[in-house]
Amino acid sequence: MKLRKYTIIKFLIILFFSSAFSYNFFVTEYRILNSSSIKNTYISDETWYVSASRNLLRVAFHMYPRSSNATLKFKSVVDLAKFNGLYSSKFDFIKMEPYVKIKNSEYAIGKNITKVMMLIREKNKYNISIVQPGWKYPDKEGILNYLNLEHPPVGKYFIMYQILQKDVPMNWRIPSMVLGSLVVFIVPIALLIATDSFWLSFLSMLLLYFDEPLRAMSMVAMLDIYAASFSVMSFSALLFEPYTATVLYAIASSSKYTAFFYFIPLAYVFWLERKKSPAGSVLRPLMTFVIVLTLTSLPIILGLGFENWLKNLIGGIEWFLVSRPSGPPPSTPWDWIVGTGKVPLSVKPTLEVYTNPTVIQLAIIAFFLLLPLRKKKLYRAPWLASFYLISALLGFQAIYWAGNHTLYAFYTVVFTPFADVAAAGLAISLMNYSHISEALQWWWSVIKRSWQWLWGKKRLECKLV
After folding, report:
1. Is residue 143 a contact partner of residue 102, using CB atoms and an 8 Å limit?
2. How far apart are CA 262 and CA 282, in angstroms?
3. pLDDT digits (tens, 9 = 90+) for 12-44
4. Which of 234, 306, 380, 430 supports an S-S bond with 249, CB 3.0-4.6 Å?
5. 146, HSE (Cβ side, Cα atoms, 13 Å)
């Protein structure tokens, strides 16, 4: 009875702190964004992801946000001038702001939502090719037709929904802030239930709260936070059973392909813990990903056509393996390990993405040091977290070797939460002399046998069973 009472008290304490830290995480981000100059502008690659989400609503779903303002693209500059002179007042537009790089286009600021919806229906009368209600586009050539089909759709569905509610920057970012806060809330609770370790749970929570990539990417409407948060949910589920974890992995990878490499730890659990066949263990997460990607892409397939979707899907995979045009400062997986890779998202206020090299390096050490202890209840979770980290780092390194030398520091949000958990697990192990001694003795035995084999003093035996 005393043991159960102690367990309940631990759970309630972690529940309280994870709720408080998660709430503070969200509120702090909201206040920073709501009180700064970036409240009313695009941040970094929101330029492309938000614009593509708005375009997909129009092109694939024939849906529009309700707004009295709209971007208008005309068939010629003559049509634009004629509309401004003769018809703009008919639709209650009070100001017309021309685009520079988007030819024959302008942003019409009005005061009547109904009139904008009427213009959508009547656009052909005025030789208008596109009427797009909502927030003003960034002035980029080709932006009105950009659909971002090189990336999977799940994250963009969240952004689309927010655009339909209200097409303003703060609204685009709310799902990102919620998901980042959920990471801080869910992981400590899952760790406590899985390991019964208060200190592993509490230390992981602290590291997650101060995780710079997690905090920065939770403040922007980009796809990386969707891949990261669903990957973290997959890991949390994997502590208990692999099937839900596999579905969440597929959703993460269908948000952005940077989560793809996590089929490796899932395959490990199916194969070596659940005793499934090696081939089946690998195919389960991969086939689930293919199914989920196809199902979540069905609305786009129906809107744009299967051939168009498949062509862009293949092109997206190829695009992921080659270097990009000029963009943010690129980095390498080694830069992320040593903490030299950095991407500025905003200058004022300062918003940067960079890794904590101490946490990353400790997490890599945890992969090796906790390997002999991974079957213990206390260390299975942090070792699996380190396995997620190693899978991601090796996957990104493979992409770099394949020819893509424009990897960016904001990709790291997909694995830094796992580094936090693994580093916390390593810290817990260092406080237990008998466990550390057991791990070191295991490694000494492995090194000794390997050395003997290398010099022919010991033979490896292979038995067919």
Report:
1. yes
2. 11
3. 999 999 999 999 999 999 998 887 778 889 998
4. 234
5. 20
- Cα 263 from Cα 284, distance rounded (Å): 9
Q: Which amino acid is at 124?
A: N
pTM, two decimals, is 0.93
Alpha carbon distance 402, 237 (integer Å): 32
97: Cα separation from own chain's centroid: 34
How many CA within 13 A on the CB side of residue 180?
Answer: 32
pLDDT digits (tens, 9 = 90+) for 371-386: 999 999 999 999 999 9
Burial 38-64 (b: 16+ CB within 10 A, else e): beeebbbbbbbbbbbbbbbbbebeeeb
3-state secondary structure of 414: helix
96: left (phi over 0), alpha (psi -120 to 50) or beta: beta
- What CA–CA distance (Å, rounded) separates 228 from 138? 26
Contact 422, 385 (CB under 8 A): yes
Provide the pLDDT confidence category of residue 197 given band limits of 50, 70 and 90: very high
The CB-based long-range contact list for 401-405 (8 Å cut-off, 24+ gap) reads 402/321, 403/321, 403/322, 403/323, 404/320, 404/321, 404/322, 404/323, 404/324, 405/323, 405/330, 405/332
Q: Which pLDDT does position 464 carry in this prediction?
A: 41
Average the pLDDT over each of 14-23, 114-123, 304-313 and give the range with the smallest value.
304-313
